[in-house]
Amino acid sequence: MLWKFVIFHVPLVHKSTAVMREWLTPCSAPLGASSEAFYEHEHLPGAVNLPAADIDRQARVVLPDAAVPIVVHGAHRHDRHRQAAAAELRRLGFRDVREYVEGKEGWILAGLPTARGDHDHT
To answer: Rounded to an integer, what distance in angstroms lies between the CA atom of residue 36 and that of residue 53?
Structure first.
């Protein structure tokens, strides 16, 4: 699987699902900050999971190019994992880290497709 991601000097935080869809270009993909079980149950299509607790030791493996944009999302708007993951990525030098505040919940409420395991569905 080829992973492409999202990163900015000024943090971008946006709650709009419409803006999130614009951020997801061919050169970017969502980064989930959930537990592996939560991710496997259902996630945004194309998302790569990197739990906030694993970012320090796994970010450079999963995200080898610090210049490529990263869109971090969590389960819902109050998910602290998203905030922690985005802050840690910025601390590690990733330059274009964006936050999708509505998270998976907002994505689903907008009627957009999701995936389970390695399979996309609606």
So the answer is: 12
